[in-house]
Amino acid sequence: MVALAITWTTAGCDDETGQRADPGCPDATTGSRVPLSMIEGRPRDLSQLVMCTNASGTAVFVGNGTKVVWLVRTTPNVMADRHGGVPTDVQLFRLWRAKKPLYGTPLEPGTALTVPLPPAQVTLQIDVVLQHQWATFDMLGKTFSAAGENLPELVKNDKYKNAVQSCLEASTRIADYAAAARYDTEKWIDSLGLLTGGATCAADLKLAEDERQLKAWREGRRPLPALKPSTFAQNARSVSSEFDDVLKAVGQILAK
């Protein structure tokens, strides 16, 4: 597993007696957010990662407003308590991501959890295998959305579901031999076959696109704008660039 680990101490959050350990975090002006003063430029992505503890320092709340998946690890290993609503895309991702051993609890964009441990025993980590899968899923969703399609509706069709699953599996394989601490965009695109069409992911996307056009024809609609492999590749570069920015910020933190 290739990963980058970060550990922070956190400021306090209010916690009422008798309530479960679900402190939330007060406004950013209280200083309870991740101490981004350690890095220059205050990258927007990491400023949306919120981490704080209750008044007694016995539980840690983590909320992920970033564009990447974090892995929450604890010492000793304890069960994290998820709470709040879970976005539909995250529900689908949890259902379909290629299952590989994860030594921690995934914290996807738009989700939050509480760990019943003091801050010193909680570590946030980026797992490259898991992130490759999320980036692939995010790229597919954004590409379909730009074409006026809704992924949760599309995947009711088996061809779309097969395409999503095969692409997530392909993204896992590329992460196995990716360079340590480096998110290689071109290798990722190549593993999905988006430029050559020579991988199962690309082949399944082509079948899904044919089904999409056939459905439009059967319903008497005009031919839809084609979703070409190059379109997916372009969006892959955009998604990868966003993650690269986070990795650079993480590297600056580790260097301090």
Give your account of this protein's structure.
The chain is an alpha+beta fold and 256 residues long. 43% of the residues lie in helices and 15% in strands. It has helices at residues 44-47, 88-96, 128-146, 151-154, 158-176, 185-192, 200-218, 229-255, and strands at residues 3-6, 12-13, 49-54, 60-64, 70-74, 81-83, 105-107, 112-115, 122-127. The strands form two sheets. It has a five-stranded mixed β-sheet. β3 and β4 form a beta hairpin. α3 crosses α8, α5 packs across α6 and α6 (185-192) packs antiparallel against α8. The longest helix has 27 residues, at 229-255. The two termini are 24 Å apart. Residues 1-10, 14-23, 26-44 and 252-256 have low confidence and may be disordered.
Number of strands: 9
What global shape is seen?
elongated
- Spell out the helices and strands N to C: EEHEEEEHEEEHHHHHH
Helicity range: 40-55%
Key descriptive features of the protein:
five-stranded mixed β-sheet, single chain, disordered N terminus, four-stranded antiparallel β-sheet, 43% helix, alpha+beta, 256 residues
